[in-house]
Amino acid sequence: MKKLISLIFCVFFFFISAVVAQFEQQDIFQSANKAFSNKKYDEAIQLYESILDKNYQSSELYFNLGNCFFQKKEWGKTILNYERALLITPNETAILHNLSLAKSNTIDEIVVLPSFFLTRWWTQIRNITHSGFWSLLGILFIYVGIGGIVLWILGKERITRKQGFFGGMMALGLSIMIFALAYDSFQIQKKSDVAIIMSKETLLKSLPDEISNELLPLHEGTKVKIIEKITSWYKVRLDNGEIGWIIESALEEI
């Protein structure tokens, strides 16, 4: 009995602590918003980042932090935070708009190669919403599929059983695709393998070595796809398909 009471007390204490911490972070968030409204961007950045240091993340938090760096014209950090916000809420109009404005202030003009149409189609669908919604939708289709199978087994009329079978199979098939979308979205949020150049200027090298050939200069705010890492060097691919090596200190992963 004493162990049960202790367990209940611990759970209650944990719940209360979590609620209190949530309110504290909300107060800090509101203070940061007020600082931003008063054009105290450095103060707002410090407050927003203090929330991130406590492992509290949200699309709005990253978006507001990006807005602070936008006002300071620090395009690398601006784009980095907007991209992180998009990982949580893909296709958010306000974020996409501000991201486009930020990119228009960067130096590098890299032509984006068109992707394979199936890849483009899959990405567009995946980015409609976040992984949590896809998971819930997948569960819903499983229940619909099970309902159809039950109707097929227990239905009295031939047409009803036929409709239940095909409807159930279709719903279960769709649930598999939806769960694949959820998994892909979750993996992208967990590790996007995409990074933003944070240095004012860095060099894309032919090999992971300071003395290797220089391919081209890259500037703050440019997005690269990470292929692999060797010691302190990243092998990356640009949007135009060019591949090279960048020193780790020059970029930050989204």
Question: Looking at CATH, which topology of the largest domain would you report?
Answer: Serine Threonine Protein Phosphatase 5, Tetratricopeptide repeat
User: What's the N-to-C terminus distance?
Assistant: 49 Å
Give the mean pLDDT: 87
The CATH homologous superfamily name of the largest domain equals Tetratricopeptide repeat domain
Tally of structural domains: 3
Work out the helicity level.
55-70%
Q: Quick one: how many beta strands?
A: 7
Give me the Rg, rounded. 24 Å
**Name of the CATH class of the largest domain:** Mainly Alpha
**What is the level-2 CATH architecture name of the largest domain?**
Alpha Horseshoe
The geometry reads as globular
Count, helices: 8
Stretches with pLDDT under 50, minimum 5 residues: 6-21
SSE ordering: HHHHHHHHEEEEEEE
Read across the widest sheet, the strand sequence of neighbours is 6-5-4-1-7
